Amino acid sequence: MKGKWIYFTVASLMGMLASFINVFICMTLLFLLIFLYKKKNFSKRQLLAVSIFFTMFFLRSEMIERANFSRLVQGETNFIVYLQENLKVDGDTFTGTAKELKHNERLILTYKIKTEKEKADILKRIRTGMACSVRGTLEVPYSSTNQYAFDYKEYLYRNHTYWILKADYLTPSKCMPQKKTPLSFFRTLRENGIEHIHNYFPKDTAPLAIALLFGDRNYIEEDVLTAYQKLGIVHLLAISGLHVGMLFGMIFFLGIRAGVSKEKMTSTLLILLPCYALITGASPSVIRAVFMMIIFLALQKWGRNFSLLTIDVIGIVFILYTFFSPYVIYNVGFQLSFGVSFSLILSAPIILKRFSNPISLLFATSFICQLAATPIMFYYFFEVSFISVLANILFVPLFSIFILPALFIIFLLHLLFGGNINFLVTLMNFIIYWMDGIAGGLAQLPFATIALGRPHFIILFLYLIIFPCYFSLWEKMRGIKKSLIILILPTLLLLLHGSVNFLSPYGEITFIDVGQGESIFIRLPHSQGNYLIDTGGTLRFHTEEWKLRKNQYEVGKDVVVPYLKSKGIRTIHKLILTHGDSDHIGGAPAIIEEMKVKNIILPKSEELSELEKVILLKAKNKKIPYYFTKSGDSWTEGKVNFQVLSPQPEMESERNNGSIVLFTKIGGLSWLFTGDLEESGEEKLISRYHNLKIDVLKVAHHGSKSSTSSSFLNRIEPKLAVISAGRNNRYGHPNKEILNSLDERSIKVLRTDLNGAITYYFKGDLGTFSTQMP
Strand, helix or coil at 83? Predict the structure, then answer.
C-alpha cells in the first residue's frame, strides 16, 4: 500500500461529494477504478478496497446529513446553556458558542449589554465551562442576501448549529461553574492564556501573540489583517504545519540538550501534541499538522518495519479527519491546508530537490504554495496577492526563525517572572510595530492584489486540470528556459479568467442588498461601462464609548466592495452619488480606497454635506475627477444613453428633492432611478417631462410615505417597482400605503428586505430578473 493512500483519499472525497452535492458523482468512481487498473496496476483486491472506501464515506455522509436537524422549537424561551468557547465581549455585545443542555444542541448565544457596570461584571465573572440560566428568543440565522456573499446560516448548519439565542438577560449570578472535563479544561486553559496576553502585553504584540500561540486572530486590528491578506501572507497569522514543526522541534531540541533521551522526548511529544491542538482551538490546519506529526513520531517509535511515504501520511490524516467530520471539506482553512500540503508533498521529490540554494528553494516553495492556493482564494475571496511569493520570501524566515520562537519564549518567561522581563516585551513590541508597518506599506503598492472574481464553473474546472498539468510538466522540464516556457499554461488561464467580463455579451443591473440604504450596480456587456449608483452606508448614532465595537461594520467595505470583487470588477467608470445622505453614500470612501474609480458624479447643490466634503477630499488625494450634474445632462456608452432628469435648478437647495434622477433604456426595458426624490420633486419631474413612461421604477426613499405619489405612478405607469430597504428597519419602510398603491395598479414589487439582492441579467434587448432569496 506504500504510496497508494492518495487514491483512497480521492475515493473518500468522491464519496462525500456524491452525498452532499450530486449522487451522479458516483459515476466518476468507474473512471477512477479504470485508471487505477490500467495505469497504476491495482489488483482486484485493491480496487475492491477503493470501492469500499467510496461506499463507506458516501454512507457516512448520508448519515450525517440526515441527522443534521434541530430538536429545539422556535417558541421556547427558557434555557439552561453551557458556555463552550469563543466567549467575547465587543462593545455592548456579548457572544459565544453554547450548548443547550435539555436537547444537547449547539447554538450561538448573543446578549446586548445594558450598562457599563454590567459589562465589567460579565468580563470579570463569566467564563468558559459555566452553565447559565437564560431567558430569550431563538432566531434563525440569515442566509446570504447577496450573490457569493458569506452564508452564515449554511456555515452554522455545517457546524451542527441551527439557532441564534438572543438573551433578554445574562446575569452572572445565574451562571455556575460545572464539573471539569478534559475538553473544558483545555478550553479554560486557552481562555486564561489569551486573557493573560491581552492584559499584560502591549497593543502591537498582544494580537499577534494570541494568534500565533492560541490560534485566535480576532484580536488583530483590521487594517493589519487586511495588509497581510493583500500580501498573501495571512497564513503566517494562523497556526499551521510551519508553526507546529518549529515549536515542537524547538521543544525536542531543548529536551535533548537538557539530557532527556530521544525515546522519552518522543513519548512526551506524543502526549503534548493532542493537548496543543485543543489549546490552540483545533483549527483544520492545526489538526492536519498535529496528526501528521503524531503519525511520524508513532512510526519512529513503534513502526520501524512499517514504511509510509509522506503523501501516505497526509492521506491517512485526511481520511480519519473527514470520516469523523465530513462537513469539514467545505471549510476554506481545511481546503487551503490540505490543498497546499498535498501540492508541496507531491512536488518535493522532484521539483524542490532541484533547488539547493536556500533563497531559490524558498522562492520555489512559495510559488508552489501560491499556485496551489490560487483557485481556492479566487473562489472564496475573489482575489489573490500579486506579490505573495516575494512577500513570503521576506516574512516566512522572519516568522519561523525569530517571531514565533521569540513570542513563545517571552510568553513562558512572563508566566514565570512577570513584569521583570518587560524590557523583552517592549523590544518585541517595537519589532512587531515596524514589521506591521512594512507589511502595510507593501500592501499599498499598486497591483499588490489582483481581483478576477469568483471563477465560473468552467474556469474553475480548468484551474483544477491545468495547474496539475503544469506541475507535471515542470517535473519533466529541466533548465530555466524550459521552466519559463511552460509558465504560459497558468498565465493563459489567468488571462482567460480576467477577460471573462470583456468577452461576455451579458450585462446586469443589480440592486445590492445594503440593508437600510441603497446601492445599484450597472455592468454593460463587454465591460463597456461599470456604474455604481450610490454605495449604501451604515447609519451612525451618537453612542457612549464603552458601547463601541472594535471593528465597526461598514457597508461599503463589508458588502459593496466584496460584491464588486466577486464579479471581477476592478474599475468603476462612474460613481454616481445621488445626494448627501449617509445611507446612500456612506460606503463611498471604501469604494474609492479599494477600486479604481474613473469619475465621480454628484448633484449640483447649494451646499455640500459633511460626508460629501470628505469624499471629495479623498477623491482629490486619489486624483479622481469629479463633477456636479443637473437636469439635461447625459452621456452615452455603446448603445446605452443615460439622461439626468434631476436635480432641477429650483431643487438645488433641497437634500432629497435635489437627488440625481437617472433615466435609461437597458436590456429592452426603460428604467428610472430616483434617489430619495419626494412627492414635490416627483410633481416637478412629471410636469417637466410630460411623456415620461417607464418599465422599472426604483421606488424613491426606500418606500417612504413621502414619495411615490398616486399621480406620479399614474403618469409614468411602471410595470415593476424595486424597493431597497433594510429588514425590520426603524423607519417602517416600505410604507404599507405605498405598497397598497402599487398593488392597486398591478405593479409587481421586488424588495431587498424580502428578496435580498435583485438582479436583471440581459443580452441585447432580452433579459430576466432573479433574486437572491425566493
Answer: strand
Contact 603, 660 (CB under 8 A): yes
Residue 278: Cβ within 10 Å count: 17
Largest separation between any pair of C-alpha atoms in the chain: 95
Helix axes 422-443, 222-231, angle to 10 degrees: 60
Cα angle at 490 between 489 and 491, to 5 degrees?
90
CB 60 within 8 A of CB 319: no
Backbone dihedral angles phi then psi of residue 94, each to the nearest 5 degrees: -105, 130
CA dihedral 64, 67, 70, 72 (to 10 degrees): -140
Single-letter code of the amino acid located at 475: E
571 pLDDT higher than 90: yes
Single pTM value for the model: 0.92
Helix pair angle (284-302, 241-257), 10° resolution: 40
726, three cell numbers: 433594510
Q: What's the angle, vertex CA 665, arms to CA 660 and CA 667, rounded to 5?
A: 130
Question: CB atoms < 10 A from the CB of 657, how many?
Answer: 26
Identity (one letter) of the amino acid at 770?
S
Q: Beta strands of 321-463 (E only): which ranges?
A: 383-385, 449-451
Cα separation of 151 and 173, whole Å? Answer: 36
C-alpha 14/C-alpha 10 separation (Å) is: 6
What digits encode the pLDDT tens for the residues 187-202? 889 999 999 998 899 9
Kindly report, residue by residue over 314-354, the tens digit of the pLDDT.
Answer: 999 999 999 999 999 999 999 999 999 888 888 877 888 88
Q: What is the pLDDT of residue 653?
A: 66
- State whether the Cα torsion 534-539-545-550 is positive or negative: negative
| Per-domain boundaries in the chain | 5-66, 78-179, 187-454, 459-498, 506-557+571-584+597-771
What is the rounded CA–CA span in Å between residue 738 and residue 744?
10
CB 631 within 8 A of CB 647: yes
Q: From CA 513, how far away is CA 521, in angstroms rounded?
A: 11
Cα gap 178→371, rounded to integer Å: 48
The answer to whether 428 and 470 are in contact (CB under 8 A) is no
Cα(65)–Cα(274) distance, integer angstroms: 28
Per DSSP, 162 falls in state E
What Å distances lie between residue 487 and 401, 477, 500, 567, CA to CA? 31, 11, 21, 26
pLDDT at 544: 84
Task: For residue 480, give every residue at least 6 positions away whose Cβ sits within 8 Å of its Cβ, in sequence order, or none.
Answer: none
Decide yes or no: CATH 1.10.540 for domain 78-179.
Answer: no
pLDDT in tens, 592-611: 999 999 999 999 988 888 99
Specify the 3-state DSSP secondary structure of 674. Answer: coil
| SS3 state at 560 | helix
Q: Quote the cell numbers at residue 302.
A: 513503534
CATH 3.60.15.10 fits 506-557+571-584+597-771, yes or no: yes
Residue 638 · residue 524 · CB < 8 Å: yes
Give the bridge partners for 95, in sequence order: 88, 110
Ordered DSSP codes for 429-494: HHHHHHHHHHHHHHHTSTTSEEE--SPPHHHHHHHHHHHHHHHHHHHH--SHHHHHHTTHHHHHHH
Residue 546 CA to residue 527 CA, distance in Å, equals 46
- Distance between the two ends of the chain, CA-based, in angstroms? 50
